[in-house]
């Protein structure tokens, strides 16, 4: 790995004004954060109650009552605060900031004298750390830490940071290799990556060491969970957990031996994200290689084309290589967020564009399919094929919802989506001392320091509708030498580069064109990526997709919806020898680029009422309209299909 | 309905000597019953313990200990005894009869003074009838009654019959519409049809009335289960039951309003069987029509081509119309037994051959796929498509086994299969005063009374390998007038009839050719059914089967197995324009009629290690060998597929 890893630029210095992403990003400030504030305060009629703020009030002694909601209910507030922080970076919305400050005050009051912070255990009086497998105390702490770091970075206010430092200091006293400490680790990884963040902002090496301890102890034999925890005691919080194997939470073998992505999807990618962080901090090449192996296994064998993971609902987990059912899958929104986090970290360490391909895929497809265009409804589970009638009547699909829901009892996904949208800038650009990487083609502007000088880069883009991206590079001082690295996605087979109007032949390395030069006062770099609609086929080992194709443009996966094409979408057959036709539908969902594709409908003619007497079918010519998968289900309940039959 | 319904002939008078069925029927006496006797006595190494006989010994005070196994563990013994009884009809195997008598003595000792008989409640001391939803007391009683009736019919010994009459008398005191009695009904239907059997053999009308009460009270509002039972108390035996709706056990609405088959498959068809019985006993045309409606719904919208039912594992239940996934389904062996029972009863009432089509489909396919050809291994769940690697790694399939298992903790299927095989004669023939119906083409001989005279009919058949069936009709006295009715299956589009060598044109009515005449001393009737291999397509509303075909010969469904065709069976494409070629494989599983079919393999060429970069596939010519679905998985673990892709 490179000794100097890439970093993100402070979100304060990035402004996004993109036609595609604008539909969603503006929702964060305008709808999602205010709405989620109401939700965690239980003020939204028709939504499941969160009890989150109420739990803090009880723990703080300002109200009486029992803890309600999940054991990790506190994280609703933490993820909301983290998203608020990212949002405040660009706009110090005083109403939001006041609400956040007030919440932070409450959290501080709910913190115990010794630093412990968790309303479930505080209110119930259950023994702290007695059930690491399920109790989510460290997971919750991790989200608190992430939120506090973000809030400090956005506002400069230390109060929340002080709270989580006190919490982290306490956790450092409780856990670790030393005698007398608990030799366990979290049932749900999350605190590991949070502790690295806290270390990076505070410089306190204890936090880094503890993260490292948690990661390296995981899965060691004898297994902590079997010997000391709920599995031994048989006192389960979640009854279904007693049927889960240790691979559910990646503790089935020492991490250093884990070469395939196993178990619960979110747990896995949060853990791998921390591993990537530690690989850098300790300059540990072995750990980096292991991250690469795990990432390869996910991306080349266990990931949906939409950038989602988790082929099974039971355990919300990875299953086996090439096992990617399109309708019974889990594909949790949060797992996609985690995959983007992990991939972004791997990019920062390796500067290899293949990681950014996956970040882009995850963000453009499953992240957005998780949220409705009204900003108030969310999918947990993101199937690639849906027949609502079946989903409602067949309990094999009981984890699937046929429309996005207002809120969930387990409310991880909505705030996770919100914080990712609010921090999108972290994915668009990355920098080191002398280079700025343009990763995503999202219209925006960034101010950063390159070779010690202030530089502004403005990106004009209407991607992926158009593949033309213009970068206006403005160093504060003429003649600054630095590198502009522009990503050429793997799916883009042809690109034209023009610097100040002069065509150059791009020579991408690891997915990036590097333009190193002395930059004048303002220069214009244009990259024209050829991103036509294209048909994509699966590796034939994915049996569910044999004989099927999907349609993509750039990173965007398309699908057929009942609203455009009627029902029985399984009878649609696409003739991939005919080019898809682009069609911009101004009426559709604030303006959407659609595709008209040709093929046939399988027609069995009159089949009567019998089940097994159909005649040989005929193929009746038909045209279909495809829309981005991310925008599906914004027009009511209906069928949807990503992997369509291909005409022989 | 006809006032005089058809009946079965005493199994003593039917002898079966069929090449296809012989492989299985002979297993009953030689392997299954002795083996199951060892199993219920916990003497088989490597098998899950049954505890069944042990529980009876404890309840009888001959041993001390706790009840082990399921609440309905007693039914292991009951179903074993019932199968033994059918077996003793044709062969008074003294070792089996002694074991049976000994078991019956034990059961009698385990019965309480007041007639109550159930080792679970007796041993645990839990309150009788406190949990009808889950407790299975009436279900268990039903199996005891069925066994006792069969044993009495086979041996003439009254002891077991007396035990169950005492039990039934006691149940009649406890349940019923009168004040002071429990106004509930079984969580698992079964006792209803058993009580009708007991009524028919004893003439005690109380039993019929109680069966009728149970059926007609079911689903009435307010619902008994919500108001008086475990749902109200919240004390569940099976934790998952708390998530089940009332339709799980058909108590979601009054039975008279139920027009679609809902809920747990076995419960449903046992209940409908009792409804058919009651329709006859009370000559209730409305009830008969409702049975027809429910049967139509199953057969035309919710049944697999293999005669199995239950599209979802969760709840082992029906889902919606045309929802027939081939790999995540439940398709329990017991549900198929129940469907055959229900269909046979409907045939007895209506004399319509369409019911016998389904009996035949159920018996030739799923009944037999439930049992290995060694007679010792069983499938509970019968998928129509299996990829073992996926099944093992993806918990969506955790209900599926990749090979048949020695025995199950819930051991309903093995003895249910055994009793059905042992009573196969009940399905082959049916009679009324003047007619004998030849329903199934299984080589056998029957002695019966027709028009008051003894008649022997001998059937020579090698069906469905050959469609030629010869019936030798021998009345005891020349010149007896009666009708020989021979079934022409719906799938048979052409048949030739010859009476004593003279060709006649068959005029089937409701699926039967009726030959009414004065029969001489011995006459020969030949029916030649044309039953070539044929390709079958699903109604296109079955989305999982669109673009797919299956292969059948007569009632027998064929499949591709990995043992013959290699793996990746999803890439097999069948050219249905080419006729399948018959091939009798003498080496295969005691001799098996196979089919050679032609088509192609989808070949994506070199696809590299990536998931989504495959080229347009080519279709490489290929030949496949298909074997009967019933015989699959007798050569080790491997892929299997029933619904194959059809070449355009």
UniProtKB/TrEMBL annotation, chains A, B:
Residues 14-425 form the Non-reducing end beta-L-arabinofuranosidase-like GH127 catalytic domain. GO terms for molecular function: hydrolase activity. Residues 534-645 form the Non-reducing end beta-L-arabinofuranosidase-like GH127 C-terminal domain. InterPro entries: 6-hairpin_glycosidase_sf (IPR008928), 6hp_glycosidase-like_sf (IPR012341), Beta-AFase-like (IPR049174), Beta-AFase-like_GH127_C (IPR049049), Beta-AFase-like_GH127_cat (IPR012878), Beta-AFase-like_GH127_middle (IPR049046). SUPFAM superfamilies: Six-hairpin glycosidases. The keyword Transport does not apply. Keywords: Hydrolase. Residues 435-530 form the Non-reducing end beta-L-arabinofuranosidase-like GH127 middle domain. This is Glycoside hydrolase family 127 protein.
């Amino acid at each position: 790995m490179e000794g100097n890893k890439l970093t993100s630029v402070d979100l304060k210095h990035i402004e996004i004004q993109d036609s595609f992403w604008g539909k969603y990003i503006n929702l964060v400030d305008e709808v999602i954060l205010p709405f989620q504030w109401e939700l965690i305060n239980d003020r939204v009629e028709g939504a499941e109650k969160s009890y989150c703020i109420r739990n803090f009030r009880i723990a703080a002694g300002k109200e009486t009552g029992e803890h309600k909601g999940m054991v990790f209910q506190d994280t609703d507030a933490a993820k909301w605060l983290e998203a608020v922080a990212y949002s405040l970076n660009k706009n110090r919305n005083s109403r939001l900031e006041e609400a956040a400050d007030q919440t932070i005050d409450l959290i501080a009051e709910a913190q115990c004298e010794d630093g412990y912070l968790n309303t479930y255990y505080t209110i119930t009086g259950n023994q702290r750390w007695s059930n690491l497998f399920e109790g989510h105390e460290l997971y919750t702490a991790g989200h608190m830490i992430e939120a506090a770091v973000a809030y400090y970075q956005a506002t400069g206010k230390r109060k929340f940071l002080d709270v989580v430092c006190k919490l982290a200091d306490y956790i450092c006293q409780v856990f670790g290799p030393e005698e007398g400490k608990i030799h366990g680790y979290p049932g749900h990884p999350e605190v590991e990556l949070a502790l690295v963040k806290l270390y990076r902002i505070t410089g306190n090496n204890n936090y880094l060491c503890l993260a490292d301890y948690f990661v390296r102890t995981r899965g060691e034999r004898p297994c902590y969970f079997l010997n000391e925890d709920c599995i031994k005691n048989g006192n389960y919080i979640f009854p279904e957990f007693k049927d889960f194997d240790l691979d559910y939470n990646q503790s089935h073998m020492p991490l250093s031996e884990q070469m395939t992505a196993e178990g619960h999807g979110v747990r896995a990618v949060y853990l791998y994200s921390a591993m990537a962080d530690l690989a850098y901090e300790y300059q540990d090449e072995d750990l980096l290689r292991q991250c690469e192996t795990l990432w390869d296994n996910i991306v080349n064998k266990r990931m949906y084309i939409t950038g989602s993971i988790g082929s099974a609902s039971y355990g919300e987990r990875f299953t086996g290589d090439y096992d990617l059912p399109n309708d019974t899958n889990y594909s949790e929104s949060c797992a996609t967020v985690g995959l983007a986090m992990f991939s972004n970290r791997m990019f920062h360490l390796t500067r290899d564009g293949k990681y950014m391909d996956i970040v882009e895929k995850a963000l453009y497809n499953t992240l957005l399919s998780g949220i409705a265009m009204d900003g108030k409804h969310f999918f947990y589970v993101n199937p690639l094929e849906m027949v609502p009638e079946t989903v409602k009547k067949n309990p094999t699909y009981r984890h699937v919802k046929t429309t996005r829901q207002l809120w969930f009892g387990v409310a991880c996904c909505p705030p996770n989506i919100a914080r990712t949208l609010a921090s999108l800038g972290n994915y668009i650009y990355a920098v080191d001392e002398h280079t700025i990487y343009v990763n995503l083609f999202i219209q925006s502007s960034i101010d950063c320091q390159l070779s010690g000088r202030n530089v502004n880069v403005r990106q004009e883009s209407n991607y992926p509708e158009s593949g033309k991206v213009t970068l206006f590079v403005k160093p504060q001082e003429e003649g600054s030498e630095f590198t502009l690295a522009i990503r050429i996605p793997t799916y883009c087979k042809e690109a034209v580069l023009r610097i100040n109007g002069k065509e150059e032949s791009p020579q991408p390395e690891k997915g990036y064109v590097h333009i190193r030069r002395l930059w004048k006062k303002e220069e214009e770099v244009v990259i024209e990526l050829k991103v036509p609609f294209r048909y994509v086929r699966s590796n034939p080992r994915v049996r569910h997709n044999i004989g099927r194709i999907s349609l993509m443009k750039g990173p965007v996966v398309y699908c057929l919806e009942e609203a455009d094409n009627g029902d029985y979408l399984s009878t649609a057959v696409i003739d991939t020898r005919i080019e898809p036709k682009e069609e911009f539908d101004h009426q559709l969902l604030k303006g959407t680029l659609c595709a008209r594709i040709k093929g046939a409908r399988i027609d069995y003619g009159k089949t009567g009422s019998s089940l097994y007497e159909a005649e040989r079918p005929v193929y009746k010519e038909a045209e279909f309209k495809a829309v981005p998968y991310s925008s599906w289900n914004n027009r009511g309940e209906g069928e949807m299909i990503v992997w369509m039959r291909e005409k022989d």
